Amino acid sequence: MIDLRSDTVTRPSAGILERMMKARVGDMIFGEDPWINELEGDIN
Asked: pTM of whole model > 0.90?
């Protein structure tokens, strides 16, 4: 059975947790978010 009540009752798999730990992150306000910087570079 799949419980679709809420995200508060679901647990991420080991693979998802691993990807989260390896994610490139940063603050877009200070120009430190690599994904936003890449997107803005593509647009300009």
From this structure: no
